[in-house]
Amino acid sequence: SRFDTIIKNGQLITAADRYTADIGIKGGRIVALGHELGEADEIIDAQGLWVMPGGIDAHCHLDQPLGDGAVMADDFLTGTRSAACGGTTTVIPFAAQQKGQSLRAAVEDYHRRSDGKAFIDYAFHMIVTDPTETVLKEELPALINEGYSSFKIYLTYDDLKLNDREVLNVLAMARREGGMVMVHAENADCIAYLTELLEAQGQTSPYYHGVAHSAIAEREATHRAISLAELIDVPLLIVHVSGPEAIEQIRWAQGRGLRVYGETCPQYLMLTAADLDQEGFEGAKCVCSPPPRDAAAQEAVWQALESGVFQVFSSDHAPFRFDDPQGKKLHGESASFEHIPNGIPGLETRLSILFSEGVVKERIDPTRFVALTATNPAKIYGLYPQKGTIAIGSDADLTLWDPAARSTIRNADLHHAVDYTPYEGVELTGKPVLTLSRGRAVYRDGAFTAPAGHGRFLTCDKPTPARPRGQAKGF
Ligand code: URP
Ligand code: ZN
Ligand code: ZN
Ligand code: ZN
Question: What value of ipTM does the predicted structure carry?
Answer without folding.
Answer: 0.93
